[in-house]
Amino acid sequence: xxxxxxxxxxxxxxxxxxxxxxxxxxxxxxxxxxxxxxxxxxxxxxxxxxxxxxxxxxxxxxxxxxxxxxxxxxxxxxxxxxxxxxxxxxxxxxxxxxxxxxxxxxxxxxxxxxxxxxxxxxxxxxxxxxxxxxxxxxxxxxxxxxxxxxxxxxxxxxxxxxxxxxxxxxxxxxxxxxxxxx
Length: 182
Hints:
Layout: H1 2-11, H2 18-25, H3 29-35, H4 39-62, H5 68-85, H6 87-96, H7 100-126, H8 135-154, H9 162-177
Helix pairs in contact: 1-6, 4-5, 4-7, 5-7, 5-8, 5-9, 7-8
């Protein structure tokens, strides 16, 4: 799957054929079709694995958080760092969002991510760490900041640095809590 993901990201999904993938791996088409019904199924599996890996990274990052707002901060940082470490998957996520065959699956994963973030934001609201607001709207806003920043780095418009990540995390957390609480 890693080889196929790399090929899809480098050459584009549509131009990359099953024949090219199996040839690059040195296996026959029968091996491919033993695991996947089609190229679409392969990309769907790659996307699903990527989303699960991202959620694991977020879960691990927030495990030791002392407060709900700290969970939010750690979750945003983990999301940005993971995405920057996975440029191939980020590129495939961007493609999948524009293709009807994959957009629904991708949106389902995004809805789960937003719901997870909204739950932590609501916990911070309930704990009095941030003002009362629509936790789901705030979660969508944080996902938007994350996606835009990673896109800027991926396209070479902004250079990746700890300072850039810190700025984005602070923007998200200060945007929901106000600078007086952080």
